[in-house]
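Long-time lurker, first post. I've been practising inverse folding by hand and with some scripts of my own, and I keep getting stuck on stretches where the structure tokens seem ambiguous. Below is the full token string for one chain I'm working on. Before anyone asks, I'm not after the true native sequence, just a reasonable design that respects the backbone. If someone could post their per-position residues I'd love to compare against what I wrote down in my notebook.
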């Protein structure tokens, strides 16, 4: 057991200074809590059937707040499966998964849903917007889901997010009436609606042309830089991976390399 000992010099500090040093110690402890931490996470499909197969094997991974990481790897290597586990859309068969220090696997469904809504934003290859609703309404959907009703503050925040993705003129257009690149930008605004700690993007520019893919990527980098939002981005595109700060490579359900991106480091 650790020895409990009063800090003699603390008693000589005026109360404000003692408070300040406590505050610093606390914030240091908080900053040590990773946004995401996976410890030995494994995933099998078809458990208990003749076709049972383990597709992720003992994944260890930590993302600190503000990281901007690419997840690359061949098709079928388990990238989407991993994102689904991290996003609490599916459950691992082994290992532990912590989001902002919280042991997500230990939470019941309801608490997981709450944590997902509060902490995680999703951007998929296909935007999954609701076509009959306007851009603004689509961005407000997660707020509606979390709060049960939309108020003026939410409407304003949704409008701000659309402005940020350059879509103010299309705010009241139906999702079905704007271009693919614009739809994906709406999806990014929607992913940011609840100001998540972590954004998970699964080939977010996979079905866009180069110009729109670059714009979508620029936008994510901008959000990362200005809001400190952590990003984990699955991409097939080496050009886009090279614009991330860290590149994590998955092969056959294992992380085979995980490195700071030298190009970025050199430029920075
Ligand atoms: P990636 O996103 O890297 O292409 P996936 O995570 O989609 O890879 O798939 C990893 C492996 O898991 C593949 O072999 C795929 O066939 C298998 N797989 C994915 N989803 C399921 C599922 N629901 N049932 C059974 N096997 C699956
Ligand atoms: Mg995939």
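-- Answer (accepted) --
I ran through it position by position. Result:
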């Amino acid at each position: 057991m650790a020895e409990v000992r009063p800090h003699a010099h603390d008693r000589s500090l005026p109360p404000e200074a003692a408070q300040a040093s406590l505050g610093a110690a606390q914030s240091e402890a908080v900053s040590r809590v990773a946004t995401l931490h996976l410890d030995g996470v494994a995933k099998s499909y078809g458990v208990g059937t003749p076709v049972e197969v383990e597709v992720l094997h003992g994944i260890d991974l930590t993302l600190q707040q503000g990281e901007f990481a690419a997840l690359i790897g061949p098709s079928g290597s388990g990238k989407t499966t991993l994102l689904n586990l991290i996003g609490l859309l599916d459950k691992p068969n082994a290992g532990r998964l912590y989001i902002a220090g919280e042991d997500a696997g230990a939470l019941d469904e309801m608490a997981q849903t709450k944590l997902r809504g509060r902490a995680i934003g999703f951007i998929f290859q296909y935007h999954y917007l609701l076509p009959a609703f306007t851009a603004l309404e689509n961005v407000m959907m997660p707020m509606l889901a979390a709060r049960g009703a939309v108020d003026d503050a939410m409407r304003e925040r949704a409008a701000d997010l659309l402005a940020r993705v350059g879509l103010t003129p299309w705010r009241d257009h139906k999702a079905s009436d704007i271009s693919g690149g614009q739809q994906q930008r709406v999806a990014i605004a929607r992913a940011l609606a609840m100001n998540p700690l972590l954004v998970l993007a699964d080939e977010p520019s996979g079905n866009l042309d180069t110009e729109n893919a670059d714009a979508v990527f620029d936008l994510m980098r901008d959000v990362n830089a200005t809001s400190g939002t952590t990003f984990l981005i699955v991409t097939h595109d080496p050009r886009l991976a090279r614009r991330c700060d860290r590149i994590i490579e998955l092969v056959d359900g294992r992380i085979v390399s995980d490195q700071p991106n030298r190009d970025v480091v050199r430029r920075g």
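A couple of notes from the structure itself: Residues 23 and 61 are 29 Å apart (CA to CA). The domain at 64-89+110-267 is CATH 3.40.50.300 (Rossmann fold). Happy to go over any region you disagree with.
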